């Protein structure tokens, strides 16, 4: 189950970054990173986060459902999953802690907070 969450999020982010048209994506250079915001056709944010100059996911990444509700908050360090990721799904919250791309803990909570 842990690996499924990881695989789904990775595929979602990778697909979203490669499949968006320029009208649905805003990229700004911020220091030595790119700040990326990807939008749904309805104008709501799909994903927001940072990329390194060599296109590795970096720092905080947030993913949203089309209605604007938060789906996931993730943290990367130059493409490596790190820290506690939070997933919201079906009225429940799951916290997955990563260290160097490996899951070290999963906590499922009954309600969204």
In short:
The protein is α+β, with helices and mostly antiparallel strands and 113 residues long.
Describe it.
There is one protein chain. The two termini are 22 Å apart. The chain has one domain (2-109): Histone H3 K4-specific methyltransferase SET7/9 N-terminal domain (Single Sheet). Strands 1, 2, 3, 4, 5, 6, 7, 8 and 9 form a 9-stranded antiparallel beta sheet that branches. The protein is flat and about 35 Å long. The chain has one helix spanning 2-19, and strands at 25-30, 33-39, 45-52, 57-64, 70-77, 80-81, 83-89, 92-99, 102-109. 16% of the residues lie in helices and 55% in strands. The model has no long low-confidence stretch (mean pLDDT 87). The chain is an alpha+beta fold. The chain has 1 helix and 9 strands, in the order αβββββββββ.
Helical content band: 10-25%
Mean pLDDT, all residues: 87
* Class computed from helices, strands and strand pairing: alpha+beta
The termini sit apart by 22 Å
Per the principal axes of the C-alpha atoms, what is the gross shape? flat
Under the CATH scheme, which class? Mainly Beta
Q: State the helix count.
A: 1
User: What is the makeup of the main sheet?
Assistant: 9 strands, antiparallel
Mind telling me which CATH architecture this is?
Answer: Single Sheet
Which consecutive residue ranges, at least 5 long each, have pLDDT under 50? none
Under CATH, the topology is which? Histone H3 K4-specific methyltransferase SET7/9 N-terminal domain
**Roughly what fraction of the amino acids lie in strands?**
over 45%
Number of domains: 1
